[in-house]
Amino acid sequence: MNASAELLKELKLQRSRTPSTPPPSRRGLWIGLGVAAVVLLAAVAAWLLLGGEKAPEVRTAPVVAIASGGGASASVLDASGYVVARRMATVSAKVTGRVKEVLIEEGMRVEEGQVLARLDPIDADAQRTLAASQVSASRSQADSVQAQLVEAEANANRLSQLVGQQLVSRAQYEQAIAQRDALRAQLATARRNSQVAGDQLRIADQGVDNTIVRAPFSGIVTSKAAQPGEIVSPLATGGYTRTGIGTIVDMESLEVEVEVGESYIGRVQPKMPVETVLNAYPDWRIPGEVIAIIPAADRGKATVKVRVALKEKDARIVPDMGVRVSFLEAAPAPGEAEQPQGVRVPAAAIVQRDGADVAFVVGGEDTVEQRAVKTGIAMGQDRQVLSGLAAGETVVLDAPETLQDGDTVRLAGADDTE
């Protein structure tokens, strides 16, 4: 019985064991993965819209019509240069001295011979006084010799009559003749000395005049270099000594000098019409013509200097202004073929696509249209277009290689607004 009871005890269920838990659910994991995928797709879409597909920024230029024949000319070459004066001088004194007064100011117009400044003439006045005294002394000496000569000639004439009557000896007569001749020689010497003294006086007068600085020609004072009390000298090399009083420019002699590359100098001819634009006044076109081609080249820059005349004179044109010169074709003579028509655009607007010349025209909503164009002659930095473009349209400059027909662009300088 005891054995059966023990077996029954062993078969008793153990209530103390905890029931087994079911496996965890994966629904939350799938929800998390879905949210992450949505966020990733949104980030990729934002990058494509805001970064990857951002419209390229481009520069543009207008298409300009070329004027019809009847005097209009196309530019065959453009060059940069400066306004220069053929007559310009830094006026200085001929002698070294201290400036007493300066009578000019910048911007003042002076006439030829007008007094610009005066130096202290104390030394020059002293030299002139000495020269005048020497003139007086030499003239007095000549007058004294002249009086002695009159007496000697009278004595010689009297003795010549007495010697014929044998009342005086011939020795006395010959002595009187010798004294007369000596006085004649002395008189000639005195007169020469008086002439030399007069020349010295004139030189002294010139020395006084050299202390006065005058304008060598009519013009405008562009700089004032000296002040009263300063020392000026034409041979000054430094220190506190000035070399000039001021600078005068003849505004009627203004012209333009440009440097043309050696490879393009063949396009320039004497008397060739030109059009000059001052950097300070970009809307003012000044007609002119080529004066001369300087027959010398700059080895370092490989350029040749060309002189250009300005046919309009104006107070706004001043030396050393920067200019841009367009060398023009001669206008066709009556009966000759007229200048080709069309429009002109910057050369950077013409690009190559599949071996053909094309241009991208900016249309509505900043989209571009690719157009095939037929080009003509080069017009400086521009290019003639015979067909494919119309005046007033806007073209893209330096179009990117990836730019295609129908693409959207952003204009350079336009504000980026959200």
From TrEMBL:
<dbReference type="InterPro" id="IPR058625">
    <property type="entry name" value="MdtA-like_BSH"/>
</dbReference>
<dbReference type="InterPro" id="IPR006143">
    <property type="entry name" value="RND_pump_MFP"/>
</dbReference>
<keyword id="KW-0813">Transport</keyword>
<feature type="transmembrane region" description="Helical">
    <location>
        <begin position="29"/>
        <end position="50"/>
    </location>
</feature>
<dbReference type="Pfam" id="PF25967">
    <property type="entry name" value="RND-MFP_C"/>
</dbReference>
<keyword id="KW-0812">Transmembrane</keyword>
<keyword id="KW-0472">Membrane</keyword>
<comment type="similarity">
    <text>Belongs to the membrane fusion protein (MFP) (TC 8.A.1) family.</text>
</comment>
<feature type="domain" description="Multidrug resistance protein MdtA-like C-terminal permuted SH3">
    <location>
        <begin position="343"/>
        <end position="398"/>
    </location>
</feature>
<keyword id="KW-1133">Transmembrane helix</keyword>
<keyword id="KW-0175">Coiled coil</keyword>
<dbReference type="InterPro" id="IPR058792">
    <property type="entry name" value="Beta-barrel_RND_2"/>
</dbReference>
<feature type="coiled-coil region">
    <location>
        <begin position="135"/>
        <end position="193"/>
    </location>
</feature>
<feature type="domain" description="Multidrug resistance protein MdtA-like barrel-sandwich hybrid">
    <location>
        <begin position="87"/>
        <end position="233"/>
    </location>
</feature>
<dbReference type="Pfam" id="PF25917">
    <property type="entry name" value="BSH_RND"/>
</dbReference>
<protein>
    <submittedName>
        <fullName>Efflux RND transporter periplasmic adaptor subunit</fullName>
    </submittedName>
</protein>
<dbReference type="InterPro" id="IPR058627">
    <property type="entry name" value="MdtA-like_C"/>
</dbReference>
<dbReference type="Pfam" id="PF25954">
    <property type="entry name" value="Beta-barrel_RND_2"/>
</dbReference>
<feature type="domain" description="CusB-like beta-barrel">
    <location>
        <begin position="256"/>
        <end position="328"/>
    </location>
</feature>
